[in-house]
Amino acid sequence: MKITNKTALVTGGTDGIGLEIARQLTAKGASVIVCGRRADALASARTEGFEAIQADISTAAGCATLAAALADRPIDMLINNAGMSGNFGPDEPLDLALTDQAIFLNLNAPLHLIGHFLPGLLQRQEAVILNVTSGLAIAPRAGGPVYCATKAGLRSFTQSLRHNLRDTNVHVIEALPPVVDTAMTRGRINGNKMSAKQCAAEIVDAIATNAQEANVGMVKILRMIYSISPALVRRIMIKF
């Protein structure tokens, strides 16, 4: 896609990977709208020149409110980036309220927003839907079963959506990041976290080159090993 003069909506675009995607799309000449929940993060995004909309898309009503706020705006890129971990371990009770919130934000919200914005995207000369999943959608880890399940679900949906839209102007991309140094991963001890800036650069490159997938950082290696021995990758990752 030619990014210059396009308009992008980036969910979860006030920090982490989303903010870096917004910055890099802007640097390539796009107009970027970000959404988030925290007033301070939204204010900070506005100081960088982004249009920032407060929206809690962990509910159907929040998704509808965001869509209504942009109903008369031409959107060329819908980037479903917002997410949360919802992790629990073997000695912790399953927090059902947190689980429901994570399932909606990570999986249902992208589907709701695609439903709201797809009619408009189909009217653009060229358009992109980019869903941020994870390398964990391929090989889950024991400490994040809810997160991994939602990302696997979104990966499956993205593949079907790409097939269904193959003869339209809407290009569907899946981005699969590794462990990235963001607020969500701050509590995890991992010296090999990828920077959000570098992760975003690979994702934006996938948009510019019309790639179907952005296998980011170490996920490229994971995919190579997985193609040879899926069982080996699963044994390694489930313990991670």
Low-pLDDT segments, ≥5 res:
none
Strand content: 15-25%
Q: Level of helix content?
A: 40-55%
Return the average pLDDT rounded to an integer. Answer: 88
Structural Rg: 17 Å
* Strands, total number: 9
Strand order of the largest sheet: 3-2-1-4-5-6-9
Count every helix, treating DSSP H or I runs of 4 or more residues as helices: 8
Q: Which structural class matches the secondary elements?
A: alpha/beta
Features:
single chain; 240 residues; alpha/beta; 7-stranded parallel sheet; globular
Question: In words, what does this structure look like?
Answer:
The chain is an alpha/beta fold and 240 residues long. It contains 8 helices and 9 strands. Helix 4 packs parallel to helix 5 and helix 7 crosses helix 8. The longest helix has 26 residues.
Put the structure in a nutshell.
By secondary structure, this protein is α/β, with parallel strands linked by helices. 46% of the residues lie in helices and 16% in strands.
What is the topology?
Elements: E1 7-11, H1 16-27, E2 31-36, H2 39-47, E3 51-54, H3 60-69, E4 77-80, H4 96-121, E5 127-132, H5 145-164, E6 170-176, E7 180-181, E8 194-195, H6 196-208, E9 213-215, H7 218-228, H8 230-238
Parallel strand pairs: 1-2, 1-4, 2-3, 4-5, 5-6, 6-9, 7-8
